[in-house]
Structure prediction request, 690 residues.
Amino acid sequence: MKDRQKSTIYDIARLAGTSASTVSYALNGRWQERRIKRDTVERIQKIARENGYQVNLQARGLRNASSGLAGMILPEHDTRFFSDLSQAFALEVRARGSCPAIVLSGRGREAQEQSVQTLLSYNVDTVVIAGATDPMPLSAICRSGGVPHVFVDHPCPDAPSVVTDNYQGALALTQQMLATLPPARPDDPGNHVFFLGGEATLPATERRIAAFRDATRAAGALHGSDQVIACGYSVARAETEIAELHARLGRMPAGLFVNSISCFEGVVKYLAAIPEGEMASTVLGCFDYDPFGALLRFPVTMVRQRADVMISEAFARLDEGFGAPSLSLISPELVSQPMSSTRTA
Amino acid sequence: MKDRQKSTIYDIARLAGTSASTVSYALNGRWQERRIKRDTVERIQKIARENGYQVNLQARGLRNASSGLAGMILPEHDTRFFSDLSQAFALEVRARGSCPAIVLSGRGREAQEQSVQTLLSYNVDTVVIAGATDPMPLSAICRSGGVPHVFVDHPCPDAPSVVTDNYQGALALTQQMLATLPPARPDDPGNHVFFLGGEATLPATERRIAAFRDATRAAGALHGSDQVIACGYSVARAETEIAELHARLGRMPAGLFVNSISCFEGVVKYLAAIPEGEMASTVLGCFDYDPFGALLRFPVTMVRQRADVMISEAFARLDEGFGAPSLSLISPELVSQPMSSTRTA
DNA sequence: ATGCTTTGCTCAATCGATAATGCTATGAGG
DNA sequence: CCTCATAGCATTATCGATTGAGCAAAGCAT
Prediction:
């Protein structure tokens, strides 16, 4: 408090009449190794406190070739899932006594590489990469910097990866939807189940589509490839796609598997605008979670990815230390709507 | 790529047959000041590229007493508002060419002070503090470290602060609700408008309650102090409070002003469990925003805080540089439900 | 009194980048 | 031919914390 400037161990040393190295050991808790008198330590600590001393972590990091920072990059904060991931990451890192540095990099390849480079430049001790657009170069960068890293959500063949068990989750969701449906008649496409949203080339969507196909096929509810509409992640696009489907069928489909919360938003917007009777019999499922999604005017089964479990698993992989490629699948949970005593026909 | 180890300017200097300082200037773009030959610069840049050189930002920061990091602390990522804030922050910082470091500190005083200390230890160039539990000590820490800082969402009397215009927002929301209500009869409390949620001692809630009082009083709809139920932010608590209110009145209130998205979640959970007729005539408002909130089975007017505007304003304050106390009010926007052609009585 | 151990520290180098100062060729001007 | 300016770089100190090596004094045994 006395000085406006930050004080260094040299300042403290001068005030305490000792050397800087003594101050260093006194303040970082390892003074016993150096056989420093308890008296001296306490005197130094007192002076440090009075002068508002704070270690310069840059200097320490430079010397130690490490920073005490754990870095995470993720595309955005626009969905619960990513927010939950960063929240879980922050908790875990703080519990381990280091400092989380979260970088929102956007979805561009370039930007993501940039972000990883920047983190490495700060000598982060580990990197968690969520939602990588193009994982391989990112892994290469980390490896060439010798930094342990792990991928979450979007896996990398070259590094430990933790992803939701998209196949199992989608299988469970589809089965649950089918169970509440009347059997489909092949001649009436209006009675079919549809899959909407996502990018078919991305591994997550690919697995989900596979599960959707398998489950519907097993139930005799797969009739053609037009049941899968992987139209990307845009809210507006999903809205127009569902409108088109509605028009094409002449009515709402019997079941709708929506593949991401943003598409679900588009679907719900559309549903809010049509007469309630029109969709009263549609069974809805969404592979993603939002607390309000479960509280809409119609029942929805949602799949919740377990961000906290994924993060613990990611750190478990990091703790192992080899950095060998691996793939951990985390089962998501099915969240069905709480009992709705309502629903006026 | 050649080496597994990170290379330094000294390595590059050796390979290029120059001195380290030449390399430094060649690579950081300021070589003209040092009259270094273009040939030399290009040779150095080539070698640097081939060896995967990356500046060590810790070393640079140590030397320059700055880090290129912009720090933000915020309590959690559990609501849209905070997620939007960090998203906007990240965009703004990256647009300015530095690196965002976001720290989720939780709501504890201690933890928040700790987080700010840690940021200062990394020599961050600026600090944005969102949702401070106890602003004064945080500001004191930044000031004693000589670091420009600004408060967002929860203001500090000692520093520039940017907050939502809670009074105006709540006034507009209350008025909008009252406008769609039949006039209240003083003798029938069931016809009253209620305010639910929040912590009355916090400045945001305090302002909102004031506006709620003023608007209801002006409309002759303020009858007693029991119309304000500041029961905190817990989902479960809000649910029991609304249940109790329902029981006490013998029916749902005519209007309900819900003061935060978490309380709104509790309210919606409750509403989902009662017969639809029971609440068909309740007018709902929520001071917070969630895209699905607007798509529930009943109409809701939501107040959306403009995170992006708040962040630009925060940086405008930082750019001014004096760090003098100030209070910027940002008007939120009212989001009414899109036309609902539905609602079966 | 001498030698040896232990205590309690100090010194100086180091991490990598930066920047003030210094040094050496070359060419121009007188 | 000598002086001086300039281009083009090299040297070296510095930022703050850490750490291996060392060193003086005290204690102890012989």
User: Anything to note?
Assistant: Residues 340-345 of chain B have pLDDT under 50 and may be disordered. Residues 216 and 222 of chain B are 5 Å apart (CA to CA).
